[in-house]
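Structure ticket #2291
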Amino acid sequence: MAVDTLQALNERVLRELNEGLLPFWQTQVIDYQNGGFIGRMANDRTIDRRAVKGLILNTRLLWTYSALYRYAHEDSLKTLANRAFDYLVDKFIDPDHGGVYWFLDAQGNPVDVKKKIYGQAFALYALAEFYRMTEDKKALDLACRIFDLVEEHALDRKNGGYFETLERNWSETEDLRLSPVDMNEKKSMNTHLHLLEGYTNLYRVWKTKQLEQKIADLLKLFLVHVINQDTFHFNLFFDEVWTPKSSRISFGHDIEGSWLLLEAATVLGQAELIARVREASLNMATRVLQESVDRDGGLYYEADPSGIIDSDKHWWPQAEAVVGFLNAYQLSGDNAFLRAAIKTWNFIEKHIIDKKDGDWFWRVSKERKPYKDDPKVSEWKSPYHSCRACLEIIERINKITTTEKVEP
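Resolution: structure written out below.
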């Protein structure tokens, strides 16, 4: 694969980041009435002023603005990162029990105060990134405090891993679901993947032996329990003792996990774990390439052992696929992965980017028709996947074209 092909991809990604994503997320989501950021925007940019404000949207905004500032060094991004940090501290932090609330109302009052470990993970992930930008000790202290609370209350000391959800005071709860579409089980792949992601980012700025061990433990859990050793897909839900409770396959999580696991192992720096995770990462990416990529380059959403059960193409698996396939190319040198990454970016440009109203459509059908009733911004729709993918692609192409041999 020629260097100029990679550089052409890099230019296209840079253009989308700088001319598409950045202007939208810098200007369209500020809540001037109630502070912080809006909770929901329809695809045509109509804002729902009564919508809840979700922890995931707000922490992902904080991470994105902080990461983009370290990339672009624009003062406006620093201002937005500070706004997101201040709102998180003022409104989402539980002053009585610690940790962060799940939902606020439009005015910033807590309405869902459960301690979802997935949410705690994104809070410390974002706070660590903000600290990387500012070296503000308050951000690091908050991240470390959330880490301590998760370890104190959510850790399963008998069977390993972490319980999904706790009450506001960190006691047990009956409804463990992250969202209404999830299973009510004790443990999930999703929470563990993003807790690993958060712990990895925290380890970049807070290298303690305890955190190092926790990341290693999480990686081993993935290698033993979460990755299905027969199919190389993630098992999604588990009971307390790690018995899989679902046969559904999430292609987006598989390809996202393939590079996030290796990122965690690499940051940790333990050679044996790196070797094991490299093998698993390639196996996962290979299976996604074989089973989930349509002829147009887009990734189908979900499957089960019978085959594809959801052929829609959501925005975030497409973003993760480009990164995951580039990662697999870096590991293997197999041009099939590089071709797949470029083809998926082609699909994003042609069908996912909303050229009229900005940002990306939530999803398109198998026939590549956008679902225009899906929100543009919501408690789950944020710039995290799209902007992070752009930053990862740019960094990886730079490494490939400068430090690795590329076939002429």
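Closing remark: The chain has a mean pLDDT of 96.
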